[in-house]
Amino acid sequence: MLQQYRSRSATKLYWRCWNDEYVVFDETSGHTHQLDPVRAFVLNLLGPSPQSFETILEELSSVPVLADEYQLPERLLAILNELTTLGLVEEAAP
What we know:
Blueprint lengths: L3 E4 L5 E6 L2 E6 L4 E5 L1 H9 L5 E2 H9 L2 H4 L4 H14 L3 E4 L2
Antiparallel strand pairs: 1-5, 1-6, 2-3, 3-4
């Protein structure tokens, strides 16, 4: 079974970007989060329709600067766990 993720359905996000730093305000929780470009890419990729871990990894691998990164699957898993802990992402039923 493939694990799937999506943005939390109750979350309404407002984005701002300055250089390579992203700030996301979650209107639902009232929290503001500062994200690096990779975390912002992953969060932006996840919409209301679930994406499998493999699909997200494939999209990340298509980014030239990350394509050859060693341990990219482990890094993605850590990012997804972090975004889940922050309440921005949730696991979705397949």
